[in-house]
Specification:
three-stranded antiparallel β-sheet, 9 strands, 33% helix, four-stranded antiparallel β-sheet
């Protein structure tokens, strides 16, 4: 019988496979989300814990997982890489290289589209909360509590 943590890892791996299938076009996102939620609910019921507790554990496993770079390059996503062996904080965006502060300095950098748009003075990034406002949604990333999500904005159009 698998331990609670091993079961969570199995569930996280299943979620990754489901989401991976969606990202390579093997299934649609709605179908994948429904299937993933069904696995989470089933697992929570089996272990007699809340769905929220399972989601928290999955977030902790996912957010705290350390990726392995290859040849000093760490893949971030969509043409964005970090240089894990540079003396400075370095990001490559679609081949363009951005160099920041010395590698022993905390630096939070924002990448949008095909460029680095800014960096922010954040002394304790593990306590940061990033909030992104768009006309239709508000997204958040809470690094301290390993939470992320989005809210749909109310329809504010005038009648």
């Amino acid at each position: 019988m698998r331990s609670y943590k091993m079961n969570l890892i199995w569930l996280a791996c299943s979620a990754t496979c489901l989401l991976g299938a969606c990202s390579v076009g093997k299934t649609d996102e709605t179908e994948t989300s429904s299937e993933l939620l069904a696995h989470i609910v089933e697992y929570a019921n089996e272990k007699e814990v809340s769905v929220g507790e399972v989601e928290q554990q999955l977030a902790a496993l996912t957010w705290n997982a350390e990726n392995i770079s290859k040849g000093g390059a760490g893949f971030v996503g969509h043409g964005v890489y970090v240089d894990t062996s540079a003396m400075n904080n370095v990001i490559s965006v679609d081949g363009a290289r951005w160099t920041g502060l010395n590698a022993d300095t905390v630096q939070v950098v924002f990448v949008a589209g095909d460029r680095v748009i800014s960096d922010a003075d954040v002394t304790h990034p593990d306590e940061a909360i990033l909030v992104i406002f768009t006309p239709t949604h508000i997204r958040f990333f809470d690094l301290k509590n390993n939470r992320a999500g989005k809210y749909r904005r109310a329809d504010l159009t005038e009648e």
